[in-house]
Amino acid sequence: MKDFVYYAPTEVVFGEQSEDKVAGLVKKYGGHKVLVHYGGGSVKKSGLLDKVCNLLKEEGVEAVLLGGVVPNPRLSLVHQGIELCRKEGVDFILAVGGGSVIDSSKAIAYGVPYEGDVWDVYLRKYNPETALPIGCVLTIPAAGSEMSDSSVITNEEGWVKLGYSNNVCRAKFAIMNPCRTYTLPAYQTAAGVTDIMMHTMERYFTQDDDMDLTTELAEALLRTMKESVFAVLKDPCNYRHRAQIMWGGSLAHNDLTGCGVTGDWATHQLGHELSGMFDATHGASLAAMWPSWARYVYKSNVSRFVRFAVNVMDVPNDFTDPEGTALKGIEAMERFYCRIGMPINIKGLIGREVTDEEIKEMTRKCSRDYTTAQGAFQTLEASDIEAIYRMAKG
Amino acid sequence: MKDFVYYAPTEVVFGEQSEDKVAGLVKKYGGHKVLVHYGGGSVKKSGLLDKVCNLLKEEGVEAVLLGGVVPNPRLSLVHQGIELCRKEGVDFILAVGGGSVIDSSKAIAYGVPYEGDVWDVYLRKYNPETALPIGCVLTIPAAGSEMSDSSVITNEEGWVKLGYSNNVCRAKFAIMNPCRTYTLPAYQTAAGVTDIMMHTMERYFTQDDDMDLTTELAEALLRTMKESVFAVLKDPCNYRHRAQIMWGGSLAHNDLTGCGVTGDWATHQLGHELSGMFDATHGASLAAMWPSWARYVYKSNVSRFVRFAVNVMDVPNDFTDPEGTALKGIEAMERFYCRIGMPINIKGLIGREVTDEEIKEMTRKCSRDYTTAQGAFQTLEASDIEAIYRMAKG
Lengths: 394, 394
Hints:
homodimer, 12% strand, 48% helix, 6-stranded parallel beta sheet, two-stranded antiparallel ribbon
């Protein structure tokens, strides 16, 4: 069992009336003048943005607005946000939206007190010891950024996408009202749940298989997400299951399901290149890669895949044929992806055959110019990465 | 599903070398002069106290020592601690021990900045908005105080035992080294696991049975504790299972297994009077009461007890006889208690028949002089409480 640090200080305020507490929470965590950061039209259309701004105003908290965050949040908007915060004397950032808005807020929070370019943080040239405090009003369960220490930013110059993790940017609070997720389109709901499950599966597929408590918690979370996504795809306004997905999204990525084990994260790396090259939804890219990754690596620890098949995917255990049971678990996961409208290969994701050149380019990027192996469940060199992309062609 | 707030800010540092980080953590959370608070001989005998003091000294952190905490920690020692902290200008309290030491530390932490008597806090006459910061080096997994917001103190004048909960006293950090629990006697180990499981069972037995995620997480935790306690009773130096019990103890009581549901807590109330009257170990008192509580209330929600029987206690589900399955789950729990050396009734706990007068006295106390009902799974009036004590005579 690996030593671990578990640190999840975010105050989660969960429920139908949770938004009403936004101004009190901002003040509790030291905010007097707030940057309200958001994405596109949905938080305007739903009235959430107006509601939040009115609540802040009523409680005497000044607000400055900055919208326009897009998926794969851009460095240029982060720069704008930093300038705005400095000009206006902002002392708190309130993210109203999903993972992209929260990640963009984290980058702004690093940048305000730093004299250099905040991109230095993502280039690991500068390690911040301080950041503006941030809080969130979550509207999309998927990325888990509301309780995680990480953020991913895309620099439009060269389209470089880099992630960075640091405890100083963990949200002070996260307001979660499941009703705000009723209007998410089916595809985005399914891609979100795929991302949530993958955050835990990346930790679950490990060679450190002596931490039963963490493993059992992970399985509990995966089983629940699997059932809840069917319920909300059938009935988008099902509070019970929207709530479970929303809370599951935070628990899947706040490290609870990784305590004492080494995570793998190869599927995320493989998927990142795919979504980067084809501008595909993050969760869908993970679904497109996972079955091929799984078939390529399962022999490294068959018993783990058997456990997954039986305890998560409800595959009957054929005790005489562990490999067969393991493969049936992977097939069951493919069927699950198909049923929720996710792709199970690259063709399903992008709608055409991926070319040899594209595979080579993704392999080069994923292996950082053939210098870096990926994964921990099984170490993947560039040749392995290329083989998995080929298996995933479809 | 109930709205909820989840707040677990304690930084958990877990592993064999975790103690080495104690001085750095104290400094990180603002400590310059520390009260090192502990119980009896075991932390001295094991060398842990010396190790901690040396590490603090090496890093230039001044330490003042106060030992002598006993189970059911006393108000008089809390008063001593408050005086000592004021006299010495202590700005951080480090609890080295189990739940009693941590609870005593929390009381001192409330008392130092308060001008009145700290007992006011437990009498709910004063609600602290501030407290000295505390940290812990945990040696006994059971109470979960290292991540919880609660503490229980006994006032020797009249032997009144009162609990109080407040987020301001949550520990800043908790150092957990499973090796420190190798020397715990079998009885204390078993009583600790009983307490851990009961913290989650109090939340699990609820009428809010629409929060599958929380329920599944609770079952995962209960199953793991059940297996791990057998392993460590057989092999006290089994790191893997000692670690799971230690981490399980924190997760069982940091509210994770209660998100979205209303807990019951009647067994704790029934057990408190028992341990108060007969000076019995807290965990053992819970085991003595739970089977009778369960048989008295299970009809209020049979399906919940069936679920417990099947998913936690491995009882085969007789679909034609839910009540029968529920009762088999209670019997299986009794067998589990017997196998780990815990009592299943009052006679087993105190070694003789409890008298009618004693039952009446406990009923009076548990119902706060016949004014207060207990429980939420099923509301228990004084007559119910008395009936359960009678069922539990043995």
